[in-house]
Every structure is written in structure tokens, then in C-alpha cells.
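Entry 12.
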Amino acid sequence: MPTVRVNEPDLELLAQDRDLPHVYNDPLRLCLYLPGTCEWAATKRIDQTIIPWTYLWLYYFEDWLATDDWKGGGQHPGDEPHDPCNRALRRALAR
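Predicted 3D structure (C-alpha cells):
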């Protein structure tokens, strides 16, 4: 499963002590899709999924910096409900 990390600029520094929205932690990586939901699969092209999703995440992040309101939608990591039997999701949240 691909993961996306932003090296520069420092997203946490830009957030100015606010909790970053829609990310996984340890290590910090963008939440672009919910694992185990078939939004992304190895059969899908990265240039048609991960790259445009990253662009959208960064767009909504810039908006969040100004408004403190995440308008990007999606289910945030740790939000309920999720299927506790979903191994891919449990693995992603545990990282």
C-alpha cells in the first residue's frame, strides 16, 4: 500500500500547535484513502489515484490552515465506525 509523506514544508510547524487533520502518525503520513475499503488497490494506477489525491489533500490542508475547518471529507483515522475485522485498516492505524 503506498504511503505519502511530506518532507518540506514541515506540516506540524505550519499547523502551529494544532492537531493535524486527516493524517496517520508515527511516522506522519497523509490519509488519502481508508485501507481495506477498495478505494485503492494494487491494480489501480498511482498517477490516477495517489497523486491526484495528494494534490487534493494539500489543497484542503492549505484551506484548513486558514479556516481551521477540514473540508476534504473522508473518514479520519480512529473515527468510528470501522470494521474491527479489517486487517488492512488495523495495520494502517497501528503504524
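Annotation: Residues 11-94 form one domain. The chain has a mean pLDDT of 85.
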